[in-house]
Structure formats: C-alpha cells, structure tokens
Specification:
AB_hydrolase_fold, AB_hydrolase_1, Rossmann fold, AB_hydrolase_sf, alpha/beta, single chain
C-alpha cells in the first residue's frame, strides 16, 4: 500500500491533521519554520526551500512514491515538489491550496497577517476570521500554540515572499492524479481563486467542492478529508 504523507499550511503544524489521523494511517510532517521544524525557518525562504526540505524528508524515509495530502501553503509546496521530484509523489490531494500563482491578498491583508505573529489575541482573531465551523477548544488552543512557536523569519517569508511567488511555469509536465478539495465558503482562499488560479492551471485535476467549511478543512470537516484519503489512488 502506498504510504500517505500529510503537509500542513501556513502558521500551523502537523497537529492540524490530528482529527484526520484518528481514522487514517498516515505520517504528518512539519515544514521548515513551523512545528518541530521551527528552528529551520530562515529569512526569505521560498516555496522551493520548502519543497527541498520535504523532498529530503521523503527520501530519508525510503518508501517513495507517496500519496501527499497538503493544506493551504503546503499545497503550493507539494505541487512544486511533484513537479521537481516526480519520483517521490504518486498522487496529490490539495486542500484549500494556495495557488501556484501569487496569492491574492490586499496590502492591508498582508500587513494584518504579518502583524499577527507572536500575539495570541491576534492569532485567535485570525483563525476566527478564516473558519466557518466551530473548532474544538483543544484544537483551537493548538492553533494558537503553533502560531506562537513558528519562526518569525518563516512567518514573514511566506507573507512577503512565498505567497507572492509564481511557480505555475513548472507545472506543465505534471503527470499524476490530483484532487483539489476546497470550500465554496472559504474566506481565505476563495472559490474564485481556486477555479481561476488552481483548477485552470491543473486541467486534469479533479475538483471536489464542499459547503459550510472555512479554510481549515482538516479541522472543520475532517470526515470529508478522511473519506477522500480512504479512496484508492484518488478514485472511489
């Protein structure tokens, strides 16, 4: 059976998958600057830096190729990994992914996100703003702790560098099953962005829209993620 690896999004850690991992056999990892890899965060780090770090983790495990499920920022990292190291990835599941093109954010939005670093109240407000379903108290507290633990350099680098990068030119040779699971009600990465900047650039991808969830799908609708990952090679 092909092993599954779970990749978190911006500001969170492998813990964002805790509700999914109750029902799915998989390995969740931390990207540089976050979770247990917080000390690896560097000023100006790029999507490519994240992809290289993820590739090194997967090579060390020695079980390639992997099915990779990646959320938000992690989706952009996983896409670049698949493009640059196709032998490591057999299938991609992208959950509310940051687009391969520059993520649409207003200057005010970027400033607010940047300023949330290190402040529990601001982090809590941020997560309240991007969710639509109640998050269990323990999971919400973990989100805050993950945000406080993250590297300041990595936090700023995603806001000012990674989220602005355009990696779409490297995706033309992708030849693997890709599923995009997203919410029609996501206030962080809108359905318009998903359709115009993700699905339009991955014409062979399968789109699975949800309703009622915000951006944190692994915590808001874990049952949808579990159902997806329990399929064989992305197909029922």
């Amino acid at each position: 059976m092909t092993a599954t690896v779970l990749v978190h999004g911006f500001g969170t850690s492998r813990h964002v998958w805790r509700r999914v991992l109750k029902d799915v056999e998989a390995r969740a990892v931390d990207l540089p600057g976050f979770g247990d890899a917080a000390e690896m965060g560097r000023a100006g780090q790029t999507v490519g830096d994240g992809a290289r770090a993820l590739a090194n983790m997967l090579r060390e495990s020695g079980d390639a190729p992997y099915r990779i499920a990646a959320h938000s920022m992690g989706g952009k990292v996983a896409l670049l990994l698949a493009a640059r190291d196709p032998g490591l990835v057999s299938e991609l599941f992208l959950l509310a992914p940051s687009p391969p093109t520059p993520e649409p954010m207003t200057p005010e939005g970027r400033a607010t996100l940047r300023a949330a670093y290190g402040t529990p109240a601001a982090l809590g407000a941020q997560y309240q703003d991007i969710t639509r379903q109640p998050i269990p108290e323990q999971d919400f507290e973990q989100l805050i702790q993950d945000g406080l633990r993250a590297s300041c350099e990595a936090w700023t680098a995603w806001t000012d560098v990674g989220s602005r990068e355009d990696i779409s030119g490297e995706l033309h040779g992708l030849r693997l099953p890709i599923t995009v699971l997203y919410s029609e009600d996501d206030p962080a990465i809108s359905r318009t962005t998903i359709r115009s900047e993700v699905l339009a650039r991955l014409p062979e991808a399968r789109a699975l829209p949800l309703q009622g969830s915000g951006h944190l799908i692994p915590l808001e609708q874990p049952e949808a993620v579990v159902a997806l990952l329990q399929t064989t090679e992305g197909r029922p």
